[in-house]
């Protein structure tokens, strides 16, 4: 662990036994960065799998959205792309910090 993190993962003298408690640098860099990234990746994978077999609806010409309304597939693709960008951003933050 010393090659990955210079500090211990948990250090009671830094976290509990002080008037100014804080987390160790190792915990901030691993757990606090990796847990949200892993949850986001899992949610994206589950959503992708759930939507893979579904035909997303397209708005009809008489829909209330009119001519400028985006259809369901474009919204889904935009959401997946933005989710992917957020996952890559979290992974890069974890790897290059």
Explain this structure to me?
- There is one protein chain.
- The mean pLDDT is 75.
- Helix 2 (25-52) runs antiparallel to helix 3.
- It contains 3 helices and no strands.
- The two termini are 16 Å apart.
- 58% of the residues lie in helices and 0% in strands.
- The chain has one domain.
- 0% of the residues are buried.
- The chain has 97 residues and is mainly alpha-helical.
Q: How many extended strands? A: 0
Number of helices: 3
Shape verdict: elongated
What is the N-to-C succession of helices and strands? HHH
Helix content, binned percent: 55-70%
Task: Give the uncertain stretches in residue-range form.
Answer: none
Main sheet: strands, sense, barrel: none
Distance between the termini: 16 Å
Structural class: mainly alpha
Compact overview of the structure:
58% of the residues lie in helices and 0% in strands. It is mostly helical.
SSE blueprint:
Elements: H1 12-15, H2 25-52, H3 72-95
What key attributes describe this structure?
97 residues, mainly alpha, 3 helices
């Amino acid at each position: 662990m010393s090659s990955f993190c210079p500090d211990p993962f948990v250090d009671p003298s830094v976290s509990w036994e002080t008037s100014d408690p804080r987390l160790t640098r190792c915990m901030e860099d691993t757990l606090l960065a990796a847990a949200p990234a892993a949850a986001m990746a899992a949610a994206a994978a589950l959503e992708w799998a759930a939507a893979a077999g579904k035909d997303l609806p397209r708005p009809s010409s008489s829909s209330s959205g009119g001519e400028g309304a985006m259809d369901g597939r474009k919204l889904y693709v935009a959401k997946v792309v933005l989710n992917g960008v957020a996952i890559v951003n979290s992974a890069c933050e974890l790897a290059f910090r």
